[in-house]
Amino acid sequence: MKKSLYLGLIICSALVYSGLAGSAKGAQRTRLSVGLFDKLHTFSQAQLQFTADNFDEVIVGQWEADIEKASALKSCNPEISIIGYLNSKHLFPGSARYEECADNEEIFAHDVRGNRIKSLDFDQYLTDIHNPDWTVKTIQWANRLPPAFDGVFLDVAQPILVEFNYRYLPKGYNPSEHAIAMKELLYNVKHNTQGMVVFNGLEDGLEYDGYTDNVDGGLIEGFIFSRLRQDADFERVNNHVNVLIESGKRGIIGAVSVKGCKENINSRMFALACYFLGENELSIYNFVDINNEFSNPLQYYPEYKIGLGSPVNYPNKMEDLLDPDTNLLIRHCPINHCVMAERPE
After folding, report:
1. Which residues make Cβ contacts (< 8 Å) with residue 37, sequence separation at least 6?
2. What are the tens digits of pLDDT across the range 60-88?
3. Which of 30, 218, 249, 260 has the most CB atoms around its CB within 10 Å?
4. Is there a domain that residue 311 lies in?
5. Whole-structure pTM over 0.85, yes or no?
């Protein structure tokens, strides 16, 4: 029945797209986030204004030119949230932050041979998050962000290392100790800075006691889909929607980033329909076209104009939305009710 879930969501979400977009004019639209990283400094004034008018949260990278341009974006819309990017456990060679740490060998993680460890996906060195110097540096960088910034986004902040990202793990690596060290890093950043702290790794963080106690929000990167897999089964949908629901119950931001192909409208609508199942006042949505993720980060789609208003029924878990008469997952909202998916047997 996995296939029926997929098709059911596509069909029903397409009905939401075509049938409610026009009738929902003036209703509260989906809150949107975008990661601009190292592209903001290239933006024209028109692009800055478009971003300010259509997005609620922007993540800005670590390069000085982008940080300076953030003030111009804030002047376009003082209500937009600008979050500064910090990697919680990697340093990128050539960056100003790497140069600050290059001579402090203790800040870097090492394998059993004593060599620094690079991630396989990106040209970045893994740091030793147990080292107090790394905590001090992270706090310093967060506090250097100018007043236009509303907080920091700590990337790669999952409780444990994703092992397939590295050829070798650090010498003496212990998953439980790593989770404790990462939780302490989140705590120290939150209690020694002024703004919001949002971390990447929400679905894993919720599994550890107290992990989200000292953050303002978390991100599910690869919501529903992943770069390698552009379909979804019931288990993945159920898990991610329940994480989104749980973040709302805890009173923290639940951000989702979908990795998909913009040409596949069905996939875009499928992802948005799944998001609607768990959406709350604190959640925020982003769709990234994996074919243009780095060349064109400013991506905006027609379905973003759908305004359904705040949902009426807030479930404790996705299964609470099951309608026993139709065997459909249904989420009600002020404009109409959204029939989302057939429940697999």
Report:
1. 59, 60, 61, 66, 85, 297
2. 987 778 888 999 999 999 999 999 999 99
3. 218
4. no
5. yes
